[in-house]
Design goal:
The chain folds into 3 domains: 46-114, no CATH class; 153-323 and 449-532, Alpha/Beta hydrolase fold, catalytic domain (Rossmann fold), CATH 3.40.50.1820; 329-434, no CATH class. Helices cover 30% and strands 21% of the residues. It has helices spanning 46-51, 65-74, 130-136, 201-206, 219-225, 255-275, 290-303, 330-347, 355-368, 382-391, 420-428, 436-443, 451-458, 479-483, 511-514, 518-531; strands at 35-39, 55-56, 59-62, 80-83, 100-105, 111-115, 139-148, 153-161, 169-180, 183-184, 189-194, 228-234, 283-288, 312-318, 352-353, 405-408, 411-415, 434-435, 465-470, 490-495. The chain crosses the membrane at residues 7-26.
Length: 533
């Protein structure tokens, strides 16, 4: 069944301050009723048309009447409230809401009806100024695209403006199995993934050094093939082009901004999941490397909010730590020094960290001319230097490395678990720039004066946690942070090839998503945890 006026939104986003009663409208053909039906059998994705019309400050999703009452109290002007339950009583009072209200009915059937009709008398001026109000809201859906990764797995991209800055735009990804176009299967679990420094969703998750994802080389493809609804994000700074020279827009761009963008993106993901028959429930949040810091920050931020505003069900911090067990850990001190150096660079106008551009040059040289002398490291070939950048010890910890290597004396001669060409391809795909302030802010958590505050914040976190680690990355160091939370459901999976050392030969930081045996050692236990959470 379809209505004749699908997606006519003259009444969309009606603010309800002063409106006293909402009436649920059934799912039937009546052109006089202000509602939309989304036909989940449709081949052209009617839910896409609905999403592309949205603009908002925040999205609040509710699953029962108690949640709805709290949502009405918490909503601010410009917020959108979505109510999943079809049993809302007509006497429900909405006086306290400043947000726009949409009720969903027929949720478990083949159609979903979305209504914002009220029994109050709306004046002829009620919609006046709505267009300008929408344009002034911080969040707007810009574009939704779909492509096929296989005969039954689709990849969606949703572009969302998050503010007025030139790069206040994020790209949300969804990788999911479908029974037909725009019709996802009923999945067995979900995850929202945040990439690390200088990366994006494609670089480290969907296509890490490869062109065609499958179950053996792509964690989202693997998870989607095993009935997990996979979401992710490209943070705004990943879309700054290489030719950029003016980075003034990066001046105040830190992890708090990224955290806010992630949480708003999760709300959008929850809404789309609801509209595509997955339910409005909260989601599991996975963050890799810097993304793990954002994951912790998001979980901590939600402890300070009313529960109705929270989007995180469980979290999977991946190969990162917020607090070292020993207060005098030398690598905590080194990270604090890096923060101070980044603060100095930022104070003198160095707003952009260019590591991504540098790594891309290293990768390109290794692909184009592997046997020639490296311009970055005299005495090594381009191939040798690129491999050393992956497998050689870094400053993050004792013998910490990106990828496990094979050694000929002190110099890595190749990679042990990940194909070299994949590493080179990953390097050339990295985002060229990220804000310096993120480095300054991110590494400052390891400074002694911040330790107790971080511990106190972690103690407020009570959601389920799975820690994923690589013994040659942060490994066991990342477990300690999880023990500081108040969660009663904490588990850890640390991949190791050498339980008794040497660490320099063990599974590396990025092997978790790039190694040939990652599907068995990393993604399968992740899938099992997601299916049970």
């Amino acid at each position: 069944m379809k209505t004749k006026t699908l997606f006519s939104w003259k009444f969309m986003s009606i603010f309800l301050a002063g409106i006293s009663i909402i009436t649920i409208i059934g799912c039937n053909d009546d052109d006089d009723q202000d509602y939309i039906t989304i036909d989940s059998e449709a081949q052209d994705g009617e839910w896409v048309n609905f999403i592309e019309n949205l603009s908002f400050e925040s999205i609040i999703l509710t699953e029962n009447q108690d949640d709805l009452k709290n949502a009405l109290q918490q909503a601010a002007e410009g917020d959108l409230i979505f109510f999943e339950d079809s049993d809302l009583q007509s006497s429900q009072h909405l006086r306290n809401s400043k947000g726009a209200f949409f009720s969903l009915t027929g949720f478990d059937g083949e159609e979903i009806a979305i209504s914002n009709r009220t029994t109050s008398n709306l004046t002829s001026d009620s919609g006046k100024g709505e267009k300008s109000d929408k344009n002034n809201r911080s969040c707007r859906i810009l574009e939704i695209t779909r492509s096929s990764l296989s005969s039954d797995i689709a990849h969606y991209k949703i572009m969302v403006r998050m503010g007025s800055g030139p790069f206040d735009v994020v790209r949300i990804h969804r990788v999911v199995r479908e029974s037909r176009r725009f019709r996802p299967i009923r999945t067995a679990g979900n995850v929202f993934m945040i990439h690390g420094s200088s990366q994006d969703f494609d670089d480290i998750f969907l296509r890490p050094g490869i062109e065609n994802p499958d179950t053996q080389n792509s964690s989202p493809f693997y998870l989607a093939s095993n009935n997990i609804d996979v979401w992710g994000i490209d943070l705004g700074w990943t879309m700054v082009p290489l030719e950029t020279t003016d980075f003034s827009f990066f001046e105040n761009w830190g992890s708090n901004k990224d955290t806010g963008h992630v949480l708003k993106s999760m709300a959008i993901a929850r809404l789309v999941r609801g509209l595509t028959r997955q339910g409005f429930g909260r989601m599991n949040l996975l963050g890799f490397s810097y993304g793990a810091a954002v994951t912790y920050n998001a979980a901590i931020r939600e402890t300070k909010q009313h529960r109705i505003l929270r989007d995180i069900k469980g979290m999977i911090p991946t190969d990162f730590t917020m607090v070292y067990e020993q207060n005098d850990d030398p690598f905590a001190a080194g990270s604090c020094s890096l923060s101070e150096a980044s603060e100095m660079a930022h104070a003198t106008g160095g707003y952009a960290n260019t590591n991504g551009a540098g790594f891309a040059a290293i990768g390109q040289a290794a692909l184009d001319d592997p046997d020639s002398d490296s311009p970055f490291a005299p005495g090594l070939t381009n191939y040798q230097f690129a491999v050393a950048a992956a497998a050689g010890p870094q400053t993050n910890g004792p013998d910490w490395h990106f990828l496990g290597g094979q050694f000929d004396g002190q110099l890595p001669s190749g990679l042990a678990y990940t194909d070299e060409e994949r590493w080179f391809n990953l390097l050339i795909a990295l985002a060229p720039y990220m804000p310096t302030y993120i480095t300054a802010e991110g590494f400052s958590i390891f400074c002694p004066e911040n330790r107790e505050g971080i511990i106190a914040d972690l103690n407020q976190v009570k959601i389920p946690i799975l820690y994923l680690g690589a013994a040659g990355g942060y490994g066991q160091d990342g477990v300690f942070s999880t023990t500081l939370t108040s969660s009663s459901d904490v588990s850890a999976e640390i991949v190791t090839k050498f339980p008794n050392g040497p660490r320099i030969l063990d599974y590396g930081h990025a092997d978790l998503f790039m190694a040939n045996d990652a599907p068995e050692l990393v993604w399968r236990p992740l899938r099992d945890w997601l299916a049970n959470h």
